[in-house]
Amino acid sequence: MLKLQHIGKQFDGKTVLDDISFEIGTGEIMSLLGPSGSGKTTLLHLILGLTGADRGSIRFGDEDLTRVPMKKRGFNIVFQDYALFPNLNAYDNILYGLRNKKGRVNAAEVQEYIDFLELAPHLNKNIGELSGGQKQRVALARTLVTKPRLLLLDEPLSALDGVIKESIKQRLQSIAREFRLTTVIVTHDPEEALTMSDKILIINQGRIAQFGTPQDIIDRPADEFVEQFIIKQLSIKRQNILNLFGEMYA
């Protein structure tokens, strides 16, 4: 369980995050959703430990991680650009995540992640030979072999489209279920958040606009901002979104 309470953050005297509180359970996917500059990436970095909070607390299970450095939190992140090493093939990129974690993961476990993500045919390929979806899966495998307690993803679908995007969405949902891996995703795309998350935290100008399940947000938007951001950005009618959810839960 990840629990944040009354998180605040300023940069150069400007408030970036103000009184952020939420809680998500083990194996749940939560999307941080909001327009550019809303503070969602800063919040992701606070959870990871790349930057510290000015006030408030961050807890994972029974542990207070507020002042714990990033390397000791046991969390890991897949960045938007995948951050793969072009001089290494796909397999060596996956193993790179284990360079300082010898003994924690054996060869059979590494192979389990490779098989789960269907990467076996691509292991000897150079990074430049991989498609966008294949690069994303290599980045996920490299992160998963480190056995993170929490998985963070920064705009994981932004460079993908069509069938590839849908495939990665399904894989992320499968990862959370299969490995009971709590997952936090940053996205600016309401459709992504609504169709792949258990919970959504909508941020506007550094404050929580709404926190709840996708169905809650669709049925009961907290204010005009939420409704405008969700409905108008998708450029579809409310009924079409409800129809989408009808298909998902049928």
Automatic annotation (TrEMBL):
UniProt KW Acyltransferase keyword: no
Gene3D superfamilies: P-loop containing nucleotide triphosphate hydrolases
Matches recorded under SMART domains: AAA (SM00382)
Record PROSITE patterns: ABC_TRANSPORTER_1, ABC_TRANSPORTER_2
Listed InterPro entries: AAA+_ATPase, ABC_SmlMolc_Importer, ABC_transporter-like_ATP-bd, ABC_transporter-like_CS, P-loop_NTPase
Organism of origin: Paenibacillus cookii
Ranges in coiled-coil conformation: none
Keywords for this protein: ATP-binding, Nucleotide-binding, Transport
A Pfam family reported for this protein in Swiss-Prot or TrEMBL: ABC_tran
Origin: domain of life: Bacteria
Protein name: ABC transporter domain-containing protein
ABC transporter domain segment(s): 2-230
